[in-house]
Structures are given as structure tokens and as C-alpha cells.
Amino acid sequence: GYESKSEDTLEQYTLASSKNHSTLEDELFEIINTYRASIGLNEMEFESTTYYYATLHTDYMISKGNTSHDNFTQRAENISKRTGAVFVAENVARNYDTIEEAFEAWLESPGHRVNIEGEYNYSAISINQNSNGDLYFTQLFFR
Fold this sequence. Notes:
Elements: H1 10-17, H2 23-38, E1 45-46, H3 48-64, H4 72-83, E2 88-94, H5 99-108, H6 110-116, E3 122-129, E4 135-142
Parallel strand pairs: 1-3
Antiparallel strand pairs: 2-4, 3-4
């Protein structure tokens, strides 16, 4: 099986983190920030290290055919090492046809909502599709 490694080479890291995030990812990020602003919270800033790890995890979930928080502790530690993050959280989803549906589902779930409304300054969202076109989502948050 796939294990994420903390010994990524700088070259791999640079390539992956500079991958252009998609319009869908940007739009969902904006929806979440607009929601946060509407309830008096700060808007979060996109952060590329977090995007790298979110993308790795989205691809991992696609390879497994299911959502999970597998290897979260390792992801959080790696993000912390590279950014100085003191607290990291994660939301995942799949099988939503639109980003709006995924957002609504996260809001209706207390555990996911806590993260969206949490005291975070930085975030990134990775959205990718499997060979059937099903969307998989990972959002990482940190402060």
C-alpha cells in the first residue's frame, strides 16, 4: 500500500506544491471563506504546504476508493514541521456532484462544521476525481 513519507525530496515537494490548484478548489475555498466572514470569523489564507499534503491525501483516498483520515497524525506533524502550525484539522468527502453539495454536507455534520468554523488562519483544499469522475475532497486547516 501507499505510505506518505516525511522524507520527500525538495524537488518533489516543490513540484507538487506549485501544481496549479483548480478552479473548483478555488471556488470552494472562496465559499468557505465567505461563510466564515458571514458569521464574523476571519477569512483563511491559502497555504501551499497544506495544499501539497491535501493533494497527497486526496490521491491516496482515490487509490483506496474510500474516504479516510489515514495517516492524519503524520500529515499534521509534517505540516507543523514545515509551517510552525500548532493545531491542524482535516475534512474529507466524496460522492458529491458539486462543491456546493460537499460544503452543505460539511456544514450539516457537527464534526466537519467545527473545523469550518474553527480558529484557523491557513487552509488548502484538494479536489480530484477518480476514473469514474467521482469527486474526492480533502481540506486541511491550521493555526
